[in-house]
Amino acid sequence: MREHRRFIGKGILFCLLVGMLVLQVNRILIPKFFYTNSWPTTTAYLGFYEMERNSVDVLFFGSSHAVNGFNPQELYNQYGITSYNLGCEQQNLVLSYYWLKEALRYQTPKVVVLDGYILFPYNRNEPLNSAEACSRKALDFMRWSSVKKEAIDTICEIDKKQTVLSYYLPNIRYHTRWMGLSEDDFTFEEMEKHYELKGYSALTYSYNQEGYQPLIKGSTEERTEMVELMREYLDKIRVLCEEHGIQLVLVKTPAMSQDIGKYNTMQAYASEHQLLFYDFNEQALYQEIGYQFAMDSADSGHGNLWGAKKVTSYLGKILTENCGIEGKIHTDWENSRAYYEQVQKDVALTKETNIYPYLSMLDDPEYVVFIAAKDEASNSIDEKLVEEFERLGLKASLKGQYRSSYLAVVTPEGVKEEVGYDKLEDKGMIRDGRVAYWLQSGGYDNGNMCSIKVSGQEYAKGLRGLNIVVYSLVQKKVIDAVCFDTCDAGCKAFR
Predict the structure, then answer these.
(1) Exposure of 92 in the CB half-sphere (CA atoms within 13 A)
(2) Contact indicator for 401, 378 with CB cutoff of 8 Å
């Protein structure tokens, strides 16, 4: 009997160890989309669970248009409104519904703001109106509960290509990722902590193309039909909000894909169910918020940091005046102010074209700065530039070093630099040995070249002058690469 019990105990222990191993393998193999990604789904969803219970007054849902369009920190900074963005790339209404159900297990929001982009045909070949990968993104990091089980069962019933088992054992779906594993897959605990922007992802570039035309309300009675399944789950979201005493607000962020037919359909639905609806593509509203599509959008459908500020600011006015949301002070949003300010500084850095303020902005302990000269980089080095270099701890002045080679690396731990008339090279590591770099510089007579590689990727512009690459220790990625032509007067910037 004793031997029998011992055998059973060993069997149970073995099963537990195998189970733990499978869970760890699953954890590693599941694709992760952290704050370094344009749509940081993993960060957003894991971060949501870290929020204090019943602290969030407003929840945002929708596709990537919502992720890049609604900025919770900006909403808090301007109005004191606590919010969280639970959108994700290609988030269809089925996913929005189940994430709302999941959110209600932890929060008691007063308002739900839903972007209506995927109400209409998006991916006609997919039963869910969006790609299977996006369902995985949305559900992989939802905690296990009856809500997640229901979501998986529903999705697999609608989309017969997907299987329930592959959600329960993700290694079945992702077993081919072994060769593509990265740092993010093994520094999970570190990466998941960065949820300071509360689901929002700031795009930092501008579309810079004309052609967008706002919609003129009443110009036609044309209607664009919603996808039947999306309409069904919009109804479910509306009813769920009603049951919990939540005000549902329909929104459409600026996008070239929005047309008057979609506007009329959403307006009619909102009127039928006494919902607030704001389409920022509608001419009067578009002009009221001062949106400039070419400058405030990152592409044809996604707002950038500046566009999101304008949309979010107006939504704050709606939430206070029309929804009765009162501002308050909360530690979670107060603590994330500094992170948001750093993000805005990073963005400002990428827009700066004057070398003097640019160098001044580099004086930041959160940056690692790589510099490599090519061709001739000394002719326009004046005393003011020498002062800016010295502020960064750089002493080997290029002034008077005609056609010389030059390398520099500025880290919080110290400075390395070298100037001379031979070809120069430097290799090293940053972030405790996790990120490798390799710099090369050759003046006009010594190869006439430069290279700045970070993690094996070339970032140097390879143009005449000072090539500068900036790595953010906060965002854990290169955030800017620029060349200032310090040979010519004016030191023109090239990106």
Answers:
(1) 30
(2) yes
Distance CA 195, CA 62 (A): 18
- Where in 129-275 does DSSP place strands (E)? 247-252
What does DSSP say about strands 58-61 and 111-115: parallel, antiparallel, or unpaired?
parallel
Strands 435-443 and 477-484: unpaired
Q: How many CB atoms lie within 10 A of CB 133?
A: 12
Q: In this structure, are residues 222 and 261 in contact, taking their beta carbons and an 8 Å threshold?
A: yes
- 1-19 pLDDT, tens digit per residue, is 666 566 565 556 655 554 4
Dmax over Cα atoms in the chain, in whole Å?
Answer: 92
* Structural domains of the chain ordered from first start: 28-342 (3.40.50.1110), 352-494 (no CATH)
Q: 104 and 239 in contact (C-beta within 8 Å)? A: no
Is pLDDT above 70 for 159?
Answer: yes
DSSP letters of 324-358?
-PPP---HHHHHTHHHHHHHHHHHHHHH---HHHH
Closest CA to 171 of 138, 146, 136: 136
- What's the whole-number mean pLDDT along residues 35-63? 87
DSSP β-ladder status, 111-115 and 247-252: parallel
Instruction: Report whether pLDDT(336) > 60.
Output: yes
* Phi/psi at 258 (5° precision): -75, 135
3-state secondary structure (DSSP) of residue 388: helix
Closest listed residue to residue 473, CA positions, set 357, 364, 372:
364
Nearest one of 99, 474, 117, 65 to 303, comparing CA atoms = 65
pLDDT of residue 17: 56
Give the SS3 label for residue 443: strand
* Cα–Cα dist 409/419, whole Å: 12
